[in-house]
Design brief:
Layout lengths: L2 H11 L3 H11 L2 H14 L7 H13 L3 E4 L8 E5 L11 E7 L12 H21 L6 E7 L7 H7 L8 E8 L10 E10 L15 H15 L8 E8 L10 E10 L2 H22 L2 E6 L11 H13 L17 H5 L4 E7 L9 H6 L3 H22 L2 H19 L6 H4 L4
Parallel strand pairs: 3-4, 3-5, 5-10
Antiparallel strand pairs: 1-2, 2-4, 6-8, 6-9, 7-8
Organism: Biomphalaria glabrata (Bloodfluke planorb)
Family: Belongs to the peptidase M20A family.
Protein name: Peptidase M20 domain-containing protein 2
Length: 427
């Protein structure tokens, strides 16, 4: 008997009936799933321009019986595809969401493996869809969200603020990497433009009434440099003086600074922001200038994690034959999905793709189109499908995840004096 057939039969012997149905359905559609992943890899469409990828995935899901909303909520390369009937929501009829992403880097192609993220999502969705089809009564809904790319990596934040994730009870996704991290901690990040406005010399010789904004930005920069002694080791502040006039003998009307701040917890981000605020205020007071702070991009929040989702994922990934390669980082860079986690219990994992090539490199981009990488993505899709089934058939699992999510949200944000309603625009 062929080795692959033996492995499939061994897995089926330890799966529940629902999981057997999902597993078999996925196995029967492997060629189509790998084909769509390969097509996305070849297209290499950059962020915000993934029109062909959008159309390819939408056509596929429609053919599979999903109800698809194209160009969702006005986002030209986003979609929402749903399958399932009956009242949806909560522990009675959960709506399980899977996340697609399909944009590529203009220079390095799919060096972040987003073609594989789509394969994972579609694999999981087709498995859960089949379980819903064969259920004797409504058990919930499966939703696939296609995310638009964005040059500033804020696509999911923009979609979140427009309500694109509304109605989803659990959101599951897995991204390829050269390491494994089943519980990533995404740091929060803010990027602001600080504008100092001066006061030019009035009529007559009264230089003491002049307020030079160049003095203000120099003082502010020095104040922040002095404050670094009080920064914790995992805080990060980077900035430049962006505008300070163009002629040596002409005082500008204004001067600007561009600063990025990062911190792993909301309370620490609040403290760090207040320290910078005082630096700006002191500079403005000493120089006689006025200042204002303008957000340069959307704020990246810290993510909410649910330990029960992680446990269920690890169990099912192991069941599907995934071997964990733990090279976890203490903190991951800011991620736009973190904002979504404040409203929707979410699992995002980084899984070892089978290559030591680092993300963002040409080497990883080439590997992302290989059969080996496709195989690892199918394994992850199966694991997420099995996890979704564990949620759909167990009210206890769902309640535990909901409770963990709410508890963690309160712990992280209320401790910083931020009401959960301030970070969850959908609720």
């Amino acid at each position: 008997m062929p080795k692959k057939k033996v492995e499939i039969e061994e897995k089926e012997q330890i799966l529940t009936e629902e999981k057997k149905i999902a597993f078999t359905a996925i196995e029967q559609q492997l060629d189509e799933l790998n084909g769509i992943g390969k097509d996305i890899w070849r297209l290499r469409e950059k962020s915000g321009k993934e029109y062909k990828c959008h159309d390819r995935i939408v056509k596929f899901l429609k053919r599979k019986g999903f109800k698809v909303s194209e160009r969702y909520k006005g986002f030209k390369t986003a979609f929402r595809a749903e399958f399932g009937e009956g009242e949806v929501g909560g522990v009675d009829h959960p709506n399980i969401g899977f996340l697609c992403q399909y944009d590529a880097d203009e220079a390095t192609g799919h060096s972040q493996g987003h073609n594989l993220v789509t394969v994972v999502a579609l694999t999981a969705a087709l498995g859960v869809q089949t379980v819903i089809k064969f259920a004797t009564e409504p058990v919930g809904m499966v939703t696939v969200i296609g995310c638009c790319g964005h040059p500033d990596n804020v696509g999911k934040i923009l979609m979140f603020e427009e309500g694109c994730f509304k109605g989803i009870d659990f959101l599951l996704t897995a991204y390829p990497a050269h390491y494994t991290n089943v519980r990533p901690h995404f740091v929060g990040s803010q990027r602001n433009k600080i504008v100092f406005r001066g006061r030019s010399r009035p009529e007559g010789d009264r230089p003491w009434e002049v307020a030079n904004p160049v003095n203000a930005v120099v003082l502010a920069y020095q104040n922040i440099a002095s404050a670094r002694q009080q920064f914790k080791e995992d805080w990060l502040v980077k900035g430049v003086i962006a505008e300070a006039g163009s002629k040596a003998d002409v005082m500008p009307e204004f001067s600007t600074m561009d600063f990025i701040t990062k911190a792993p917890k909301p309370i620490e981000m609040k403290v760090l922001s207040e320290m910078l605020q005082r630096s700006y205020e002191a500079a403005a007071m000493a120089s006689g200038c006025r200042f204002e702070i303008e957000p340069a991009v959307k704020e990246f929040l810290c993510n909410i994690t649910c330990p029960r989702l992680v446990e269920l994922y690890k169990h099912n990934a192991t069941l599907m034959g995934f071997t964990f390669h733990h090279k976890m980082k203490a903190f991951e860079p800011p991620d736009d999905i973190a904002n979504v986690t404040t409203a929707v219990p979410t699992l995002k994992v980084f899984y070892y793709s089978g290559s030591s090539a680092e993300l963002g490199t040409d080497e990883f981009s080439r590997y992302a189109g290989s059969k080996e990488c496709e195989f690892m993505s199918i394994v992850q899709g199966k694991a997420l499908a099995m996890l979704a089934i564990d949620l759909m058939v167990s009210e206890e699992n769902m309640k535990e995840v909901f409770e963990e999510h709410q508890s963690e949200l309160v712990r992280l944000y209320e401790s910083a004096g931020i009401a959960p309603s301030e970070v969850t625009p959908q609720q």
